[in-house]
Amino acid sequence: MTTSVARPTGRGTGAARRQWLVPAGLILLTLIPILAGEVRLHEIASGAVETAKNARFLESPIPVVTHIVSVTIFSILGAFQFVPALRRRRSWHRIAGRILIPAGLLTALSGMWMAAFYPHPAGEGLSLSIIRLAFGAAMVASIAFGIRAIVTRNFATHGEWMTRAYAIAVAAGTQAIVLIPETIIFGPGNELPRTTFMAAAWVINLTIAELVIRRRRGVPTFTR
User: Tell me, what DSSP letter sits at residue 60?
Assistant: First the structure.
């Protein structure tokens, strides 16, 4: 009489690996703006020669330094919140949340300050500043709604609002992609197409965020 031995199918291992594809993709998306931010930080720290492109940052470095540091933390750490295995761990979620919420607020508020008070660079104007202020305010509101939801222990709603905030924050990565065809078609320094394509990047991210939210609804944010 022979005894059959069950062999592992590898499905569990494959699923565990696939759940890391989303954070990896999100980090790759933000890589270009993060690297650009690192170059800007080095430029400020090293006392680079002032030019038309960097004058506003050298004259008032605190807002841009705050923005670069906070958005880097929010983008990278926030990407791991899309890993189901981590999201179900209460300790991880709490620790990450205590870092992400202030980082997200600093990201939005410093971005709004720069949109309101920094001089417009070539190819950008008042319309783009207004759009940046609007999406910055939407990010602040999303985080505020997320905080209210977690206070009332509505974990699913909390996750939905923080997903929207994250989508707004990482739009710089999407903008880096969509501005490539915009520059090829319209050339550099064309204000209206640049404004339109940059606004489209936020819309694209929020649309994807809503699809993710709809797919996730009904699934607990983490086990109790």
Answer: S
